[in-house]
Amino acid sequence: GAGVSQSPSNKVTEKGKDVELRCDPISGHTALYWYRQSLGQGLEFLIYFQGNSAPDKSGLPSDRFSAERTGGSVSTLTIQRTQQEDSAVYLCASSDPGSPLHFGNGTRLTVT
Amino acid sequence: SQQGEEDPQALSIQEGENATMNCSYKTSINNLQWYRQNSGRGLVHLILIRSNEREKHSGRLRVTLDTSKKSSSLLITASRAADTASYFCATDAENSGYALNFGKGTSLLVTP
User: Which range has the worst mean pLDDT, A10-14, A49-53, B47-51, B54-58?
Assistant: First the structure.
């Protein structure tokens, strides 16, 4: 079946603009994660959705970052007033609770 | 915050040799997972070892877990050029609600 799909694959934006990143998880997966990966670095946890529970937002680096998951499926990560330090690859993953994560190929965000 | 830390940061070996990567973590965990990431792609799950297990095998992969030392190792035997990738360990701390914490990874280069 289809894996996790992220769009766009690449996004170049000007400093100060807002961006929306989209994630289509694997159908039926109740858990959805967003991570950020800077060049040559590990994955920085951003936010975690599990079913209808309140999301774990503890990893969001600032109030410019927000995410939602509509109908327990598609998720969007929004970054407002982008800064150059926001440049990174944003990875989405989905899973059944406690099971291995299935990752998308990420969105490479470049803020100029 | 990043829980797992991989060692070494980079490893270069020749085909046929074995590659060993280590991971240390800080808090009690439910399980530890290893993932692989090819350049420009998302992460792919390799193997999961539970906190009550000490060793696990999957094909050419062997994972060990020492909860007393809070460490794990990933051994790839008879390496191939196609094994070239970055390898990450990930842990779910007991109180994290299944949100995985990743280390910075080990970059493995296998030369023909």
Answer: A49-53
CA A62 – CA A12 distance, rounded (Å): 20
SS3 label, residue A85: helix
Q: Which residue among B31, B45, B97 places its CB closest to the CB of A101?
A: B45
Is pLDDT at B1 greater than 60 in this prediction? no
Which residues lie below 8 Å from residue A8, measured CB to CB, with a gap of 6+?
Answer: A21, A107
For residue B96, the chain A residue with the least C-alpha distance is A56
Residues A112, B31: Cα–Cα separation, whole Å: 40
A56–B97 C-beta distance less than 8 A? yes
* A101 at interface of B, judged by CB pairs closer than 8 A: yes
Hey, CA dihedral for B26, B31, B32, B37, is it positive or negative? negative
Are B44 and A103 a contacting pair at CB < 8 A?
Answer: yes
The token duo for B36 is 């692989």
Residue A56 and residue B102: Cβ atoms within 8 Å? no
